[in-house]
Amino acid sequence: MRSARLLIAALLLTAGLVAHADGNPRVRVETSMGKFVIELDTERAPLTVANFLEYVRSGFYSGMVFHRVIANFIAQTGGYDEKYVEKLTRASIANESGNGLSNRRGTVGLARTADPHSGNSQFFVNLADNGGLDPQPSRWGYTVFGRVIEGMSVVDDIGAVATGEAGPFERDAPLKSIVVIRIEEVK
Fold first, then answer.
1. Exposure of 171 by Cβ count < 10 A (0-12 exposed, 13-18 middle, 19+ buried)?
2. pLDDT > 70 in the chain, percent
């Protein structure tokens, strides 16, 4: 087990990822409502984490809004700017939902359409335990690739805002925009 962790740490360092004592990179999400920190799980969701970090490093998320907020369920961002114009993304990635991580409160998952392998830039934070988003023997789930380790109260505040119709969304969009100012790796 120790040699596997050392190998992962060496791979992360050669890949240029910022790793912490536990070997996992972290990012700080700064929003118009406050900041929170996500620890990423490179061991269980390597493709998803690498994809997410490419978006982070390019500054892709700056100026995005939380466009889907459902109290006691999820808060989602990563697709639309403040005018609800959808940003162009890179190609979708393979679904890693069978990685042993569950959609529990505070975890971060990759959003997707009905196509299980359609995830790209949009992600959500689980505001409650959402086992229904986990994979089942008969269907794919939603890939968990991190967890909020600081600032969950900010995420809870986001999850409690008034929602309704905004932009192309008939419901679940915050009535007052919640903007992602930036997401950056924590050194």
1. exposed
2. 88
How do the domains of the chain map onto residue ranges? 2-185
Question: Residues 6 or more apart from 148 whose CB is under 8 A from it?
Answer: 36, 37, 38, 106, 107, 108, 125, 155
The 10s digit of each residue's pLDDT in 20-29 is 556 899 999 9
Q: What amino acid occupies position 89?
A: T
Please determine, for residue 106, whether its predicted confidence score (pLDDT) is greater than 80.
yes
Name 70's bridge partners: 74
pLDDT value for 89: 97
Q: What is the pLDDT of residue 21?
A: 52
3-state secondary structure of 125: strand
Fold of 2-185: Cyclophilin (2.40.100)
Residue the block writes with tokens 């998320």: 61
Cβ within 8 Å of residue 34, ≥6 positions away: 151, 153, 154, 157
Q: Is the pLDDT of residue 16 over 60?
A: no
Yes or no: say if 42 and 23 are a contact pair by the CB < 8 Å rule: yes
Length of the chain: 187
Q: Count CB-CB contacts under 10 A for residue 157.
A: 15
